[in-house]
Sequence to fold (454 residues):
Amino acid sequence: MTAFVMAGWLTMVFGVRGSQFTLFDLRVVPLVYGTLFFRRPLPLLLIGAGIAVCRFFISGVNPQSITGALNIMLLGLLAAFLVHLYRRRAWSYWRKALLSIVLINSLQVLGIVAFGAIPTGYYLSHVAYYTYPLGLALSALFVFIIWDFSKERRRADELNRVNRKLQQQTGELQQSKRELEEKARQLVASSRYKSEFIANMSHELKTPLNSIIVLSELIRDQEDTTSPEETARCAGLIHVSGNELLQMINDILDLSRIEAGQMEVMDQPVVLEELLQMIDHQVRAGMAAKGLLFQLRMGEGLPFAVASDSRKINQILRSLLANAVKFTEKGSIALEVSLEKALPGSLPSGAGSGPSEWIVFAVSDTGIGIDEGKQQLIFEAFQQEEGALNRKYGGMGLGLSMSLQLARLLGGSLSLESRKGEGSRFSLRLPARVWTGQPAGPTGSGRTHGRNAS
Fold:
């Protein structure tokens, strides 16, 4: 709007002066173009008032400048009316331009005649007969020039907008390309790990199966010569191999049931101390075989019993402890149980608002540890930190994936903290829902049980 006022002032500065007090110029051009540029009447009223004030700075305050200022303000009123009219009519640019040029220039002539700043006869016979058509022509010329300029500007703006959109789309395409490449890498890795799993599973299943076949053939072929003690030993090995084979098959079936949503959770009282004693009894042999120090720690304030699925908690903890034994050559393994208050923003993913307290089972070891880049990967089915077929530690890579799924089924989570070469710490968090079907018993008192399993 200020630019339009300045344009009106410049046209008066460089206008043609007919006498000391008369001035002929193109002050109507900013008003004409303003009717095509603005969409509200108020700016045109302000532009007309601004140009009228500027009229006094050209030749001072005198009758001619006063009548000139009044004439300009009248032109501003007409321009405001035209803007209001154009808002209500769906006319083309040139139709509106023609109407504005004719009406505003005509009103300027009528204003000069009406206000009498110049004798009417003299003005009509010596001035208006050439200034009026010249004003129409020059107004049309400037409106065309400005329209052509604005059209080029609009084209440039449109090109800039298209360029920005293309740049944005290019960035999105590059991002999509990176995501697709990452997905492709994940698919390749997943395919490779599944292929390794199938090969490794075949190897793992063959081992107990071959033992069963070989020992059963040995008993059959040497039925008459084999002593009862030897037969009993072979039967025992067959029984152990059969249990190993059954456990592997059960693990695969359990994972399939979990992924199919067919695994049920039995809500029952879980006495924490009894659970830990059972865990201790189940893993003691594995600790003794490797000479590892095993510690059980129960923190303060633990409830006597919680409502959960004892068998599934046992399955998760045994899997975590079995992994700890497998990947720890020397040192110690610890199972710590504590009560944790839920802090804002610290609830496990998918737990909703969550309970206010959690039972935390933390299994830590001094084993080989896990690279930071592979810590999330090991929770995926069929994958281990070391994925080669001839990997040193064996196993099918289902334990952690199944443990994570079971933890989620129980309403909790499973997380990992580890550094390569410095050991690992798996934390199982479960809701601390106190079992109300039995009277409360004594809470934990910071007990620590340590033993050298060897």
Notes: Confidence is low (pLDDT under 50) at residues 347-352, 385-391, 438-454.
